[in-house]
Design goal:
Layout: H1 11-19, E1 41-46, H2 48-65, E2 68-73, H3 76-86, E3 95-99, H4 103-109, E4 112-113, H5 126-131, E5 133-134, E6 137-138, E7 140-147, E8 149-153, H6 154-157, H7 165-174, H8 192-200, E9 207-209, E10 215-219, H9 223-235, H10 250-258, E11 264-267, E12 281-284, E13 297-306, H11 312-323, H12 326-335, E14 339-340, H13 343-349, H14 353-364, E15 366-367, H15 378-389, H16 394-410
Length: 411
């Protein structure tokens, strides 16, 4: 059993908070509103993977505060919609686990509140906090992150990571394999997500970020930088080198890499198990194609605070003082082994060189935009990339896409 004494130093803080909390958290609470601290209840939604780790922190919290914590297990794919639907009715939880790219929709629906990490903020990877920030305000306690990176077969091209696209292609050609490099384009659909590291190396972000790291609605893909990326994409498509092809979907990509027909690919940690025949895998940051660092999308998981919680101070204490500890973050990692958002733990697990490679890529990366306007981007963006790869004139095709995205964003 996890030692609860590790949380003892936090008991006073939580007890003080608890003394000021009364009333029910939601319709499921047993509190009678009398101010009796033992009647306070927090309700937390989680999925099966994270349930055990949350229970550990909840048990310490209950022992030290006298409050009760009700943990409700739900399917992860149902969490966002159920949270948006139930919080306004008073039937939602005080806290829910969720992905950072839900944030725009949650803020727009008015169902989440800001949190204050205080000094704890320095314990987290900056990109994780950036992902959970909207309009300069932090809305969730992060705990994990993931991204894509360059994956290479060191038996074919050595273990040294290429710094640039050209260097990678030269090494890939020297390996004498069927292809020097393979990347998933989701077939004819296009895959801006996987291609984004190369796009950002030209200085062409989907949306511009402000000084706080929050995304604005200003489309950043236009102008000379976006045109340069489009020209590069066309030069490496079917009318050029052919290194990027819309005949490659996720499964074909993995098969070509696993069978040694391509020594390099761009993939996430979820794909590593698809390469049982590659005995010497090296993972590194994505090489630059446009001269600037490649900044792939980073996805972050964390815990949100309901805007309708009747025990917000108590819920804030649970998040910061009980889930915002190395012990709790370790338990979450053990339950769901993504890269930890807690920096010292991330460094520790990066003793595994594969994890270290994905962490280094994430530290170069940017959060995938969580603003609602991102929903207007994907289809137009993916389609334009697919058309350019298949031989469409790069600059006018790209510029039309940018114009269409700007119009869609303005509504």
């Amino acid at each position: 059993m996890r030692k609860q004494i590790a949380f003892g130093a936090l008991a006073l803080t939580a007890a003080v908070v608890l003394a000021g909390c009364s009333g029910s958290t939601n319709d499921d609470s047993s509190s009678d509103g009398s101010g009796d601290s033992s009647s306070a209840e927090l309700v937390i939604w989680t999925d099966e993977e994270r349930q055990g780790a949350v229970k550990d922190a909840a048990k310490a919290f209950e022992d030290e505060t006298g409050a009760t914590v009700k943990i409700v297990k739900k399917n992860f794919e149902d969490l966002r919609n159920d949270f948006i639907a139930q919080v306004p009715t008073g039937k939602g939880p005080d806290i829910t686990v969720g992905a950072h790219d839900w944030l725009g929709a949650l803020v727009a629906a008015g169902v989440v509140d800001t949190i204050d990490l205080g000094d704890k903020a320095s314990e987290f990877e900056p990109v994780a906090l950036e992902a959970m920030t909207y309009d300069g305000q932090l809305y969730a306690l992060p705990y994990s992150l993931e991204t894509i990176a360059l994956v290479q077969n060191a038996d074919l091209v050595g273990s040294e990571a290429p710094a640039t696209w050209d260097e990678m292609i030269q090494k890939g050609l020297a390996a004498g394999t069927e292809r020097p490099f393979v990347i998933n384009t989701n077939g004819e659909t296009g895959d801006g997500y996987t291609m984004y590291g190369f796009q950002t190396s030209f200085g062409a972000p989907v949306f511009v970020q402000d000084a706080s790291g929050s995304y604005t609605t200003e489309v950043g893909m236009g102008g000379a930088a976006g045109e340069a990326f489009a020209q590069w994409l066309g030069a490496n498509g079917t009318s050029g080198t052919g290194y990027i092809s819309t005949t490659v979907d996720y499964d074909i990509n993995n098969e070509l890499f696993n069978t040694g027909k391509a020594p390099y690919t761009i993939q996430g940690p979820w794909a590593i198990s698809a390469y049982p025949d590659v005995k010497n895998i090296v993972v590194s940051p994505i090489p630059s194609a446009g001269g600037q660092p490649a900044a792939p999308f980073v996805g972050v998981q964390g815990f949100y605070l309901s805007s309708q919680s009747k025990n917000k101070l108590l819920a804030q204490s649970f998040l910061v003082d009980y889930l915002g500890t190395e012990e709790a973050q370790r338990a979450l990692y053990e339950a769901d082994p993504r890269i930890p958002a807690w920096s010292t733990l991330a460094t520790e697990v990066a003793s595994d060189p594969i994890i270290a490679g994905f962490l280094a890529s994430a530290q170069n990366g940017v959060p995938m935009p969580s603003i609602p306007e991102m929903g207007s981007v994907w289809d137009l963006w993916n389609a334009a990339q697919s058309q350019i790869i298949n031989g469409a004139d790069p600059v006018p095709t790209w510029n039309k896409m940018v114009t269409d995205v700007e119009a869609a964003v303005k509504g």
